[in-house]
Hints:
By secondary structure, the chain is an all-beta fold. The chain has no helices and 13 strands.
Amino acid sequence: STNTINDKEVYRLSGTISPETKDLNLDLRINQLRPFLLEPFTKGIVSNMKGNISADLTITGKTSSPIVNGMAYLNDIQAKIDFLNTTYSITAPIAISPTEFSIKNDTLNDGLGNIAVVNASVTHKNLKNFKFNINIQPQKLLALNTTAKQNKVFYGTAYASGLVQILGDLRNLEMRINALTEKNSRVFIPLSNRTQIQDQSF
Length: 202
């Protein structure tokens, strides 16, 4: 089967599914799928997604436990992190095995010439029980770009270097940050007129 958008083939699925044995023997080709189709699932977290995603995959095993192998390709994927008001882009291959999606030593860009090195592994069991092991090493990367109107608690511009780790599963996701602010960073934490600051001795 195929699907087209604006006369352009978006995906092609070919092969066989055995009704009796439930065996799968499929080839799936995805051609320049637009990532904005994912935005309904990332509302409030990620927006303004651009670029495209392609993939060449084989699907075997059983209908109840498909085995997926192949490669996917992020082609100049851009996305805005709403909370940070920063936009990043990446072009990278994703290796897909029956139990893992992985990105190895690829580069995230902030649009200002600054980068972060990304190593990411997402393991799963039959596309369930996802576990994340994501390591991002920013190198003077734009990490915050907000105004007082966007965030009254704290706002400003921050460039950071160090290590960000995202670990765990969807129910217990842990973020570990070991980073330093770089030159030209200015972050403001407003204090209301009613706030009192006292020095205390211990």
